[in-house]
Each structure stands twice: as structure tokens, then as C-alpha cells.
Design brief:
The protein is α/β, with parallel strands linked by helices and 468 residues long. It folds into two domains: 8-165, Aconitase, domain 3; 290-467, Aconitase, domain 3, CATH 3.30.499. Helix content is 32%, strand content 17%. The chain is built from 16 helices and 19 strands. The protein has a five-stranded parallel beta sheet, sandwiched between helices. It has a five-stranded parallel beta sheet with strand order 17-16-15-18-19. The radius of gyration is 21 Å and the shape is globular. Bound molecules: 3-isopropylmalic acid and iron/sulfur cluster (SF4). Pfam families: Aconitase.
């Protein structure tokens, strides 16, 4: 019998084309997702070399970062740099004959939401994109790497990627989550525990009862932030929840092909006794709704906590905490629930899926957004938007005073008109709270969709359990 393998080992081994003596491998890539920010130079490189895209049928492009999300967006993009990037993608998609969802297409949205939604992302695949949050696709038990622009060109030209294998890390969430606690709280709590470097050099497999109990949407939220924990990728073994989600999607296999795929997908789990280089365990029952207080995704505390003092930390983190508190305009000892919020952003590839909007709408229903608050809901794709309208969620948000937007990355990062002004403070369902991330001198508190909704109603960071 062969040695027991992890899920990561299995997918890796199935994709190695060749291996050098030093362990550098050439990996076959099953899906290449492309957005407008990291691809222009890559396509230009192909043009200069007179090359074609090697596998256009496995290459999928969609503009997301730079697109405005206001209803008037068909009038074009005002910012020149943004407009040029999106126009370049339009042209490159046409010239190279790849799959494309332009801004005018109802299926357009954030690349990590569109891929799974359209059935491009499947278990056991290798998926790459010139974007760090490609880890999202690991929720299907696919090995999903973020890559740089020169690698984008390499994959476009050859459908392969040069990689060294990472180590195996297991993150187990045991037991059940308590009411009001979501996938976002899990993934933030994990980073709170491991730090942003905890996963460095590793691919994380998330497992345990609390992970098994999550929907595909929740699993994508968890894997999305693997990169924020420093990992190369995040993975969850596929199961009935996965197969059910995939079945019938436009690009998923059909009929006999589905059955054949299914019999392989069912082998995609970590064998009994397989070796992990690092193991982290959290108890599901002990996870509370969390928020970030600082400018790193590891600055996580339960909402019942208080703003920490620099002296609570050790080493380099003391200075970092000082700087964070200064930037965030917070005083040690202040209750987290006393932090006043002026902006709420519900969206992004972390939390812009239908389940996220349902969770937020559940809290918002019949209530009003606090006076003076700017609150927006930005569905992750045109199809999520449509579904939310059909389910009556859009109306709940609109009635409460939220702006109801078109799909895109929006206020997750300051590359489009949705930005914070200096000093503004946002409860955001996105994944990064770096300085300036949502706009120059803007302040970001990362939270779940339900927690963001609660803050929109009360005007301050709020324990969502009080509104349930
Ligand atoms: C613009 C893009 C390259 C970037 C990433 O790689 O993640 C963005 O999506 C982000 O979230 O910061
Ligand atoms: S939604 Fe945010 S994290 Fe996701 S791809 Fe867009 S900018 Fe990056």
C-alpha cells in the first residue's frame, strides 16, 4: 500500500508534469481566471512573442476591480487608468478568444464569485488567477494559487505553472458554531490565533465538524482568507454539499461525465494517518462574533472585548499596535461596541454571495439604517444581485436605507469610485484592513455580514446577537 496522502498531496501529484532535482515542479493548470488588473502586461507579452493563449477554453476573464457599481456605469469609467485596464481586457478577451463576461453581461462580477457560480471551479482541479484571493476556490477541494503577472503570462502561454510544493497544515474547527457566529468569524478567529504569518510556506486544509456544517458559500469565505493567514492556499475536502452545489452549473460536467467526475471527486480527502507539518485546532463553540481593531487581519477580538494597549503585545507587535491604534483613532480600554461607524460595506469576494446577503437582510429586516450612515450592499455578481432581488432581499436593504449596487470589488479596495474619505470608519465584510485599503486614511473594521448589518442599524460596532 502506498503512503497515506493529504488532500493537497493528492491534487499536487495528479498535476505534476515534471520535477527538477531541487523539487521545482511544472504543474498542469486546469483553470486560469483573469481580471483586468494583473493581465494587461501578460497579454502584451504574448503579443510581442507572437504567441496564442494555449488553452482559451480553460481561460476565463471578467473585469471586477475597476468597475463602478453605480447604476449609471454603462456611461463608462471616468478614471482614465481604470478605463484603460478594463478596455484592455475587453480587447484581449476578444483577440485571444477566451471566455469572457464583460461589464454588460448579467454574469459579470468578482472573479472569485463568478468562477464557482458558473461551474468553472471543480474539485481536484488546479486553479490560478493573478490575484491573492484565488484561495477562495479551495472551498471545492481544488488547489487554487494566486500568481503574479509574469506567471499569468506563463500560464496563458503554456497552461502550466512553475511551483515548489508547500508544507501541509491542518486547521480543525471542532463542534458546532453558536448562534450569530459565521464562517467569517471562523476565518478571522483562525488568523487571530495563528497570526498573518502562521500559514507561511503551507497549504491549509480546513476540516472538522464546524467546517463540514458550512454551506459552499461559507466554505468559500473561510478559504478566501487563507492568504491573510500567510498560506499559499486553503482547501476543504469536497463532499455532498460540494457536489450538490456543482450539479447543473453551466460549465460543470453533465450526465455520464458528471458521474465519472464524481467517482474521482469522492477520492479527494486526506487519508487516515497522513502527515501534517503543522496543526491548529479551534473549538467551534468558543468562537464569538469577532471584529478587527487594527490594521492587520490578525488584529482580531471578540466583539465583547475592549481595544487593547500596545503593552498587551510583545516584540515588534508593540510598535505595530501603537501605530495601528493611532491610525485607527482608538484608545486602549475602550469597549469595541462603543466604536462609532459612519460607513458600512457589505460585499467583496469574502462576503458578496447570496448567503451573505441573506444573513445581513435577516438582521436589517424592518429596521432603518442609522441617520447619517452611508451603507451599501454590493452583490458579488450580477446573478447574486438578481437572485437577491427575486428573494426580496434587495427591497429589505433599500427600505432600510442601504444603497443597492451593481457587482464589482467596490469598496473592498480603493481602485474604483467607492472609497472612504480620510478619517471615515467602516464596518466592512471584506478581507483586508490595511492602511488606506478602502481609501486614503480610511479606517476599516473587518466583520461578518450580520455584524456589518447590525452596525448599520445602531451606528456603532454591535454584537449581532443583541439584534437577533
Ligand atoms: C488587485 C489584486 C492584484 C489584489 C490581490 O492580488 O489580491 C486585490 O484583489 C486585493 O484584494 O488586494
Ligand atoms: S473583492 Fe477585494 S479581495 Fe476580492 S478580488 Fe476584489 S479587491 Fe481583491
Amino acid at each position: 500500500m502506498s503512503a497515506p496522502k493529504t488532500l493537497y498531496d493528492k491534487i499536487w501529484d495528479a498535476h505534476v508534469v515534471s520535477e527538477d532535482a531541487d523539487g521545482t515542479c511544472l504543474l498542469y493548470i486546469d483553470r486560469h481566471l483573469v481580471h483586468e488588473v494583473t493581465s494587461p502586461q501578460a497579454f502584451e507579452g504574448l503579443r510581442l512573442a507572437g504567441r496564442k493563449v494555449r488553452a482559451p477554453e480553460k481561460t476565463i476573464a471578467v473585469p471586477d476591480h475597476n468597475v463602478p457599481t453605480t447604476p449609471d456605469r454603462e456611461q463608462g469609467i471616468k478614471n482614465e487608468e481604470s478605463r484603460i485596464q478594463v478596455e484592455a481586457l475587453d480587447k484581449n478577451a476578444r483577440d485571444f478568444g477566451i471566455n469572457y463576461y464583460p461589464v454588460s453581461d448579467i454574469r459579470q462580477g468578482i472573479v472569485h464569485i463568478v468562477g464557482p457560480e458558473q461551474g468553472w471551479t471543480l474539485p481536484g482541479m488546479t486553479v490560478v488567477c493573478g490575484d491573492s484571493h484565488t484561495a477562495t476556490h479551495g472551498a471545492f477541494g481544488s488547489l487554487a494559487h494566486g500568481i503574479g503577472t509574469s506567471e499569468v503570462e506563463h500560464v496563458l502561454a503554456t497552461q502550466t505553472l512553475i511551483q515548489k510544493k508547500s508544507k501541509n497544515m491542518k486547521v480543525e474547527i471542532t463542534g458546532k458554531l453558536r448562534p450569530g457566529v459565521t464562517a467569517k468569524d471562523i476565518t478571522l478567529a483562525v488568523i487571530g490565533k495563528t497570526g498573518t504569518a502562521g500559514g507561511t510556506g503551507h497549504v491549509i486544509e480546513y476540516c472538522g465538524e464546524a467546517i463540514r456544517d458550512l454551506s459552499m458559500e461559507g466554505r468559500m469565505t473561510v478559504c478566501n482568507m487563507a492568504i491573510e493567514g500567510g498560506a499559499r492556499a486553503g482547501l476543504i475536502a469536497p463532499d455532498e454539499t460540494t457536489f450538490e452545489y456543482i450539479k447543473g452549473r453551466p460549465h460543470a460536467p453533465k450526465g455520464a461525465q458528471f458521474e465519472a467526475a464524481l467517482s474521482w471527486w469522492k477520492t479527494l480527502f486526506t487519508d487516515e494517518g497522513a502527515h501534517f507539518d503543522k496543526v491548529v485546532t479551534l473549538k467551534g463553540e468558543e468562537i464569538e462574533p469577532v471584529v478587527t481593531w487594527g490594521t492587520s487581519p490578525e488584529d482580531v477580538l471578540p466583539i465583547s472585548g475592549v481595544v487593547p494597549a500596545p503593552e498587551d503585545f510583545h516584540g515588534g507587535k508593540v510598535e505595530a499596535a501603537k501605530r495601528s491604534l493611532d491610525y485607527m483613532g482608538l484608545t486602549p480600554g475602550m469597549k469595541l461596541t462603543d466604536i462609532a461607524i459612519d460607513t458600512v460595506f457589505i460585499g467583496s469576494c469574502t462576503n458578496g454571495r447570496i448567503e451573505d446577503l441573506r444573513a445581513a437582510a435577516e438582521i436589517v429586516k424592518g429596521k432603518k439604517v442609522k441617520d447619517g450612515m452611508r451603507a451599501m450592499v454590493v452583490p458579488g455578481s450580477g446573478l447574486v444581485r438578481l437572485q437577491a432581488e427575486e428573494e426580496g432581499l434587495a427591497q429589505i436593504f433599500i427600505d432600510a436605507g442601504f444603497e443597492w449596487r451593481l457587482a464589482g470589488c467596490s469598496m473592498c479596495l480603493a481602485m474604483n469610485p467607492d472609497q472612504l474619505s480620510p478619517g471615515e470608519r467602516c464596518a466592512s465584510t471584506s478581507n483586508r484592513n490595511f492602511e488606506g485599503r478602502q481609501g486614503r486614511n480610511g479606517r476599516t473594521h473587518l466583520v461578518s455580514p450580520a455584524m456589518a448589518a447590525a452596525a448599520a442599524i445602531t451606528g456603532h460596532l454591535t454584537d449581532v446577537r443583541e439584534l437577533m
